[in-house]
């Protein structure tokens, strides 16, 4: 289990996350849903060890991993799909995905995974992971790399951004694959239809959790609140069902 306990993060005198508590159980799928600037990517960076929280602790099972860096967390099985993947000159898709041959992947598996992300092996394995790949193709390569790494926890920061209308089926295939290999999925999105594909959701607004629960229910709440931050309303009047659930 991956756990965020009372996470607060401040930068440049601004509180970006406040007392965030999240729990990601093994083999389950979660989404973190919220409008632009809500703090979703900041949560991803804190889970991955890109930034350290100002307050609060991060646990994997009983182990406190708050002080571990990105490499150490990657070794424990946490992977992050960056919203904007980097590009590298002189490295082919196949070299990139197999870590230059260091990752134990056979050709059939590589083919299968490239098929899942919509990049046929024959057309793409010798392409370079540089500016010659379109943004959408680069994103698909990055998704393939997460699948091949077989992480315990896959944090997917807006896997749908920059992709064309086939994205819904692509996300279905990716979630199916990760489920099959037992990976816990943490999917960051502002799209309801994508969030609904996961079992549980956290709705984050202005750096706080305003709702959590089964994805269908949280998404319905998000749709009602869409276009405005419901936080002030929620704090003033309580939830529509009268509960304080999720806060
Ligand atoms: N180092 C920083 N200094 C100041 N503000 C920051 C810093 N890092 C993040 N922020 C701000 O914190 C807020 C949350 O950012 P974050 O990228 O986590 O949002 P998000 O929910 O992922 O948004 P989006 O959906 O647009 O990607 C934003 O308003 C952002 O400008």
TrEMBL record:
GO cellular component terms, semicolon-separated: ATP-binding cassette (ABC) transporter complex
UniProt GO molecular function: ATP binding; ATP hydrolysis activity; ATPase-coupled transmembrane transporter activity
Keywords annotated in UniProt: ATP-binding, Cell membrane, Membrane, Nucleotide-binding, Translocase, Transport
Keyword Transmembrane applies: no
Domain ABC transporter per the UniProt entry, residue ranges: 2-231
Protein's membrane topology: Peripheral membrane protein
Major place of residence: membrane
Translocase in keyword set: yes
InterPro entries hit by this protein: AAA+_ATPase (IPR003593), ABC_transporter-like_ATP-bd (IPR003439), ABC_transporter-like_CS (IPR017871), ECF_ABC_transporter_ATP-bd (IPR050095), P-loop_NTPase (IPR027417)
Cellular compartment(s): Cell membrane
PANTHER family (alphabetical): ENERGY-COUPLING FACTOR TRANSPORTER ATP-BINDING PROTEIN ECFA2, HEAVY METAL TRANSPORTER
The name this protein goes by in its record: ABC transporter, ATP-binding protein
Organism: Thermococcus sibiricus (strain DSM 12597 / MM 739)
């Amino acid at each position: 289990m991956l756990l965020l306990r009372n996470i607060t993060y401040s930068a440049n005198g601004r509180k970006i996350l406040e007392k965030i508590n999240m729990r990601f159980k093994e083999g389950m799928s979660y989404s973190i849903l919220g409008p632009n600037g809500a703090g979703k990517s900041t949560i991803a960076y804190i889970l991955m060890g890109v930034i350290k929280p100002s307050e609060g602790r991060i646990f994997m099972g009983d182990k406190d991993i708050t002080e571990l860096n990105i490499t150490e967390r990657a070794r424990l099985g946490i992977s992050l799909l960056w919203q904007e993947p980097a590009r590298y000159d002189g490295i082919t898709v196949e070299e990139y995905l197999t870590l230059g041959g260091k990752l134990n992947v056979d050709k059939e598996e590589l083919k299968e995974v490239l098929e899942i992300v919509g990049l046929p092996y024959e057309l793409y394995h010798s392409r370079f992971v540089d500016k010659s790949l379109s943004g959408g193709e680069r994103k698909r390569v990055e998704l393939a790399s997460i699948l091949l790494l077989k992480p315990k926890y896959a944090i997917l920061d807006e896997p749908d951004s920059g992709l064309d209308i086939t994205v819904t089926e692509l996300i279905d295939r990716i979630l199916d694959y990760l489920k099959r290999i037992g990976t816990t999925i943490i999917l960051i999105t502002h799209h309801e239809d994508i969030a609904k594909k996961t079992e549980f959701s956290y709705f984050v607004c202005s750096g706080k959790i305003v709702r959590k629960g089964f994805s269908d229910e949280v998404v319905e709440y998000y749709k009602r609140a869409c276009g405005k931050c419901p936080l002030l309303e929620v704090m003033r009047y309580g939830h529509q069902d009268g509960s304080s659930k999720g806060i």
